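Q: I'm a student working through a structural biology exercise. My instructor gave each of us a protein and asked us to get a predicted structure, then write a short paragraph describing it. Mine is Magnesium transport protein CorA. I'm not confident about reading structure output yet, so if you can add a plain explanation after the tokens, that would really help. Here is the sequence I was given:
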Amino acid sequence: MIHYYAQDGGVLHASAGQPGVAIPAATLWIDLMDPEPEEAAFIGQSLGVEIPSREAIVEIEETSRLYQHEGTLYMNATLVSGLREQRPISSDVMFVVAPDYLVTVRYANLPFFEYLEDKFLREPETHSSSEQIFLSLCGSVVDHIADMLELMQRELDDMSGAVFSEERGAAPQPKGSRADLQQVVKRLGRNNSGLVKLRESLISMGRVLDYSNAWSELWLSEPGLDRSRSIERDVRSLVDYVAKMFDEIAFLLSATLGLIDIEQNSIIKVFSIAAVLFLPPTLVGTVYGMNFRSMPELDWAFGYPVALGLMVVSAILPYAWFKWKGWF
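A: Happy to help. First, here is the predicted structure for Magnesium transport protein CorA. I'll explain a few features afterward.
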């Protein structure tokens, strides 16, 4: 699918395109969303550039992801989507940047692309060239990642409060509390997975910005270069923030697993105490359950109540001992 973004009255407006139909005048941005081979070939022939295939875009070698050919920059970034729906997916986006136009090739719906259309209407004066559109798109990507990190941080704060709340340590835990901790472990795992993909996107965007800055004389103005460096600084600060969040997740995971172990040990402790309490009565019952002929107590009139009394006393004494020691 081809989308053209051309200036009309100083504002970028979107229109759909078809292979064989001329590119509208004053087009600054061409967005290829899951393009068919004939669509990519048409745009490439119309602009005199090579539009990489999907197989070429997903290659991991840096020379295939970042390169320059005849004054046109080809830069590939791996971006994440679907975090709000808890289904994070990484997809590759190719930026083909020249002084007169920007071409993006992508194979997934990415929210930060949709944000731009609103920005075109609100700030038309800042989207009047290919470099401004490219930098605005990069800024939208970084802003979206920052928003996702803020959501994750709030969720981590909520989980931290649930794990380390005073009520959990001061009162007996209700039924299902261990299941709650298991849910915390699952949530931490989901956050860690999303964080990995966000870090990958940040590192990828950092490489794209660094590479575009290195070739700034081909297409970037001085204000554009300053803005690009500002976005790059934001990327570096977010990478540091992600590292801090990884440490927090690791700590919460370790603490949660420790609490689960403590609760499991408490259950085992109850079973161990119960076994010790019932062991002496069991021993008494076992002795007097034997049927040997020469057992003096068999003909004793008080043998039965005495045996029952021994069982009760043998259970009470260990209980009193444990209570005195404060073991439960």
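A: Here are two points you could use in your paragraph. The longest helix spans residues 222-287. The first strand starts at residue 2 and ends at 8. It's a good idea to check both against the output above yourself.
Q: Great, thank you!
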